Amino acid sequence: MRIAYLECFSGISGDMFLGAVLDAGVPPEVLTRTVEALGVDARLEISRVDRSGISATKLDVIAAGEKELPREEFWAGALSNQQSAFSPARPSSVGHSHSHGQEHAHAHSHSRAEADSHSHASEHTHSHEHSHSHEHSHEHGLKHSHTHRGLKEIRQIINAAGISRSAKDRAIRIFEALGAAEAKVHNTDVEKIHFHEVGAIDAIVDIVCASVGSEVLGVDEWICSPLNVGGGTVVCAHGAFPIPAPATLELLKNAPVYSGEIQKELVTPTGAAIVSVLASRFSHFPAMKTEKIGYGAGSRNFKNSPNVLRLTVGETTATQHESPFPVEEISVLEANVDDMTPQVFGYVMEQVLQNGALDAFGTPVQMKKSRPGMLLTVLCRTEDSQRLTKFILAETTTLGVRMRRESRAALTRRHVSVSTKWGEVRMKLANLNGSISNYAPEYEDCRQIAKEKKVPLKTVMQEAIKVYLENTNG
Asked: pTM higher than 0.90, yes or no?
C-alpha cells in the first residue's frame, strides 16, 4: 500500500503543505493549471530556499496582486454579523502585535495566514481578525473596500473548476471543516461564516491546490505525526489568548499535539483543516520503503530549527502490505464486573465513550462460583489507555483491568450533511479503496429531529438516506 507521512515538527500551514507536495514530485504546472481553473485573481510564486541548512520549496500565493499585505491590513476572518470575542479591538484594530511576532490570517479562515503561518517573518504582527462590511482605513494611508464570500459561494467556485470530482469533494470538506470550527468557536451557524475577498481567494487557492496535489501523489493513506503547535499568546480584543488559536485546537480534536521550544504559532487553521480531512491516523514514523521526500518551507528561518514540513511517500512493508485497509494500533481494556448495579454499568459505558474511547461494550459472562457478571471491553487509542484505565478502576467495582495492544484494520470515515425536510442530518461515510462502501445517518441527529418534530425515528433515518442518495446520484 502506498502511504504518505507528514512530519509536523515545525507545525503545518497551507503554503508549507503545497511546498512539500511540490518538492515530493507534483509538477508545478499541475498547481498552476488548478489556479487557472478556479478563475480567481491569483497566481503562484515558487522558489527554492534554505531553512537552517535544509533546502526546501517555498510557495507563495499572489492573491489580488498582493503577496503580503501591509502589517496594518485586515486579513481574512470569519464572522457572522456580530463582533467576535477574537476580533481586534478598536481603535487599534488595524493591526495588533503578538509577543511571538508572526502574521496570520486566521481562518477564522486563515487564508493569508498561510502565506505567513510560518510567515514567521520577523517582527510581524499576528492578526486574528474578522471580515467586516465597511471600508477599512489603515495607518499607511490606503483604503480598502472588502466584499465577503460565504461557504455557499466558495462551494460554487470549487464545483465550477475544471478539476476532478474527488478533488472538488475533498477541497469542500476541508473548507467545511474550517467553517465548522469557526462556527463552533463563535457560536454561530457554519453558513454564516464569511471570508473577506482577498483572504478567501488565498484560502481557496491553498485548499484546492492541496486537494489536487494530494491526489496527484496517488497515495492510499495519509498519516500524520504528532503536531508541534508552537507556543506563546495571540492578542485579541479581550486580551491575550494562548496558542493554539481556538479554531486550530477545535480542528485538532483527537490529534496528538504538543508545544516545543519555539514560542510562535506553528499550526494554522488551514493547515489543521487539511490534516483533519486528509490524515486517517496519527502515529510515529511508519514502516515503509521510502520513494520520495519533500520539504515545504515556512517563511521564517528559525535558528537551529528547520522551519519546514517534511513529506515522505513510499510503500508499506510486506506485513502491512498484505492488508488492503489502513491498519492502526489500538489498546484493548477489559474488566470483569460481577457486583455492580446495571445502572452504574450503563453510566460507565456512556462516560468512557464521551471521554475518548473508540468503542465500548458489555458481554454477559459466567464467573467463578457460578456468579453472573459482565465483561466490560473498551477500545481506545494507545495514548488514552492509562487515563481510561484509571477511570474504570475508579468508577466500577472491578479490582483489575487487563490491557493489550492490537492491530485494527479500519475504513477511513468522514461526515457529510444532508438537508431533510426537518433539518440537517450528518451522514457517516466509510471509504474502501476510494469508493463509498457504507453510509448511515447519525443516530443522535435523527433522534433529536424525531423528538423535536414528533416524527418516527425510522422515518427520519429513511429520509436522510433518501436525500443522501439523491444528492449522490443527481
From this structure: no
For the chain (474 residues), the mean pLDDT of every run of 10, in chain order, is 94 96 97 95 95 95 68 31 32 29 37 39 36 36 51 91 92 91 85 65 92 94 95 71 90 91 91 94 91 95 92 77 67 94 93 93 91 94 92 95 89 83 91 77 94 95 93 73
- Residue found by looking up cell 471580515 in the block: 131
The answer to whether residues 271 and 17 touch, using CB atoms and an 8 Å cutoff, is yes
